[in-house]
Please model this.
Amino acid sequence: MTVVTYEGAQFPVADGETVLDALLRAGQVVPYGCRAGVCHSCMMSADDAAPVRQAQAGLSDTQKALNYFLSCQCQPASPLEVKVVNAVGEKKLVEVLEKTALSDTVYRLRLAPGLSYRPGQYVNLSRDAKLSRSYSLASLPTDPWLEFHIRHYPDGAFSSWIANELNAGDTLELQGPLGHCIYAAEANQPLLLLGTGTGLAPLWGIAREALAQGHTAPITLVISGRSLDDCYYREELLALAAAHDNVTVTWVLQEGEAAVQVEVADIYQYCKERFPELNGYKIYLCGAKTFVNKLRKQCFFAGAAVRDISTDVFLQAGSL
Amino acid sequence: MSVYEKIGGDGAVEAAVDIFYRKVLMDDRISDFFDTVDMDRQRAKQKAFLTMAFGGPNNYTGKDMREGHKHLNLTEEHFNAVAENLIATLQELSVPQEYIDEIVGICLSVKDDVLNK
Model:
């Protein structure tokens, strides 16, 4: 017999009993379905991978990397702490180290480090109890800061506060990390990273994380935008591609003139023609909802496995 | 031994699920039922269905089948479309005909519940 900690309380788990059954027996509300390890409704995450490893059959590499497990399949031998997947956790105050304009509309915020996360995950940033937005991490855990790319919408309450009022030395609230758009691939699996706007933020983290972990297969980055003025981090991306033989970067623009590594095309048509066969690829789609949803289906139809497509959908301020 | 075990258990379901899901999403007769933003969850549902259809481990009852489908107002045509895509998936994976027949038999056994008859 052992104990499981859930939402701050401890619950006994009898020998041979599953985490799910122990929590249900104690009257806790936990989503579940088939109780046979198939439907994944009862998926939870654990503080430690070891006690839940036998309950990860059928999960994706990404889910395993985040210590996800199926509570209906887990008979723990030792104490563990579990959470419903994507529970947000505590808020903490962090200091702004730097604020820089990357383009006419995008600001880079660098905050004091001290968060345990995987590149590509996101956090909630808050001005106060009433105003909060989600932003993806663009940094690596080894960077001496947490980096975010913030698009300023003139009508957006939070992004206007960032653009007009927040300064280095100020503090804001941070809650997270959340999300599962992270690097979890075999080193020899080709990566396709497709982003629009500040969808580059998680891709910038994921691409550098892949390289840091010794990824050997091609890493193809495609950034979609209206015009070249929209596209920030041009020099940084070109430098990344120049420094690594397996990295290529292409900008696909709605307007302007084609140039080296710049195409003027419809992004959906471009992907259809350029990537007709995606069987075996690991794909990351980050940015606006229509962009992500349309390309996800398109990539799936081109042969990519559902589990090899990771997404980070941005909801514009006000659409929540 | 169930057909699920004979064709390779969970590995066989894993091999089939994306092929099957792709086919139903491309089939105009039924794609609307499967076209959702949450593709991971939809894939898990497809996997649960295939596991059941192969006679694998599941705790679904006829009542579950009825409750889970009755709001969809499904017709014979919808049921047949799903069955055709399932058969095409199994053929693509070179599953022997006798096993395919057995799987179709399991699907037919829940047909009345699925169509709420």
About this structure: The two ends of chain A are 44 Å apart (CA to CA).
